[in-house]
Amino acid sequence: MNMAQPVAPDRGLRKRPWTSVELTSLDFEATGLDLQRDTIVSFGTVPIREGRIELGSCTYQLVDPGGVRPSSASILVHQLRPVDLVGAPPMEAAKEALGAAIAGRFVVAWWAPVEAAFLDKLFGGGQKAWLKRILDVRDLLIALEGERAADLTLTAAAERYSVPVANPHHALDDALVTAQLFLVTATKLGGRRASVRDLARARAR
Prior knowledge:
Blueprint: E1 22-30, E2 40-49, E3 52-53, E4 59-62, H1 72-78, H2 91-102, E5 106-109, H3 112-123, H4 127-133, E6 134-136, H5 137-145, H6 154-160, H7 171-190, H8 196-200
Parallel strand pairs: 1-5, 5-6
Antiparallel strand pairs: 1-2, 2-3, 2-4
Helix pairs in contact: 3-4, 5-7, 6-7
């Protein structure tokens, strides 16, 4: 079922400033968080180039989860009912669109292990390999504020940094909020000259 992985950025780019590489903020909504059972029902991507968000190139797509029904808990979160997913593109078409959106780019996410797990489920390659490609905005926030920030939700973090939130748990809006929080936290941590590797290691330091 897994298609070829989207090409990863060249390893040498990790040494370059984050403002000089291609990034894509990514958010998934899913049928639940049981990775043995659940799958995605939507995704949103927001490109970041030269330290700027490219709103005109954002993508949002519903995904037919096949025979996996969204759990009642997940529906309460993202408001996507089975009837809302009728006629959505099948998983293979969604993977093609998502692969094109992240090919050659570093991924920006809120709480990277979740996105890495679903990316591995979609494309294979292993969660550890995907985590190496993801800049976790939650980790950047913890690097700024300390471990007390680990309890913040994406919406709470956005409110703290005056980032507007229009539609929480909508994949595109969450990806946009994550992208904006990334610009704020990356700049505060290392300025516009900080390398991708510096940001990836920020929480550890």
